[in-house]
Amino acid sequence: MPARDNMMDIHWEIDSIGVLNDALLRLYATASEDRFCIRAHAAFELLFPNACISYDEIFHHTGAVVNVIDKPLPIPREDFIKRWRRWSAEHPGIMYLRKGGTRTVFQISDFLTRREFRETAFYNEFWRLLKVRHQISAIIPIPDRLVAISINSSAAFTTQDIQVMTLMQPHFARAYWISRIMASRHPDPFEIFS
Prior knowledge:
By secondary structure, this protein is of the alpha+beta class. Helices cover 46% and strands 18% of the residues. A hairpin with a 2-residue loop joins strand 4 and strand 5 (145-153).
């Protein structure tokens, strides 16, 4: 990770460059769209090892969701998915994007104060159950769906955490599109080697 001596600049330590390189290799290492969520998850886990990582795809027309989360859930998975499907449209970041927002990296705190957020139905019906206080997300807005990787933490994010997410977002988007292109050209990943 970046050294924490200067909050305005990223000063990379030798070990941090290696971790970033490993994360990028994991992110780009799949030719399968259905495995991309697992690879993205693994890449961001290297960068934020003490946080809860969540990968989501929300399909606008059907309301279907794909979710990969790396920590045990405090509620049964079926209930979690049902609640996420029901309340995801009221997530402050998703509401921002639906109103035409164009930022691709943001935190919930960019839109609401902690008190305002706790007064929302989204918080009370869904978020409160997860016992997460802070979230930063990298988004890939696509016409038929929203793709996001989110870092969930009990601690507030540092400027450097935000910079790392901002640095990774274009790679997240590019690797996603590459996986979709590769999947459309080679539905069977082993076909590449035939």
